[in-house]
Amino acid sequence: MAKPGRRTLVVSFVALAAVGAAVALPLFQPWRIFTDKVVDEALPGAAPISMPSSSPAAPTVSGDPSGTPSRRPSASTSAKPATPSTEAGGRLISHEHETTGSVAIVRLPDGSRILRLQDLDTSDGPDLEVWLSDAAVRPGRAGWHVFDDGEYRSLGQLKGNKGNQNYVIPADVDLTDFRSVSIWCNRFNVSFGAAELVAS
């Protein structure tokens, strides 16, 4: 039986390499190391900037028996709106990818809660999510894979690898069950970065 020639071996190798690349490239998406997505969201519920009116408000007539008109203060100027309050927070540390920024659990004036990522800077990557977890944050490789070992809750896909972002915390989430936040890569089960939640 004749042995395959050198040309046949080269063609076979190239074909296998092409098949491997077709499978690996969509899985690993290596080009995302060089891409960034910036998302800059305002903090919901913050007091809006008041703009001066173009004309003064018309006076209202009081019940003064003399009939002299008087101005009554409007409700908008006599009461200050409620503002968001921070209940817990922490600084992000790097895990598989260099990650910086901070996280905060914020209660909004309507009583709802969000997780806010502030000044986030991490790598782009495939299938990244924002997780609440009951795991302790460990530095170095020891902390890369711990966040799915116990209880965790995804707050959704990471909106961008840079910027300021808000993630709604569902009303049924008991925050006493969680102690950390992770930027988690579902594709490879690894944390890009994480922060310990400390009560304010």
Helix-strand makeup class = alpha+beta
Q: What is the number of E strands?
A: 11
The strand line-up of the biggest sheet is 1-8-5-4-2-11
Cα-atom radius of gyration: 27 Å
Series of secondary-structure elements, N-terminal to C-terminal: HEHEEEEEEEEEE
> Proportion of β residues?
25-35%
What is the overall pLDDT average?
Answer: 80
> Could you give a short account of the major beta sheet?
6 strands, mixed
Terminus-to-terminus distance:
78 Å
Question: What's the overall geometry?
Answer: elongated
Helix count? 2
Short description:
The protein is α+β, with helices and mostly antiparallel strands and 200 residues long. It is 14% helix and 32% strand. The strands form 2 sheets. Strands 1-8-5-4-2-11 form a 6-stranded mixed beta sheet, with no helix packed on it.
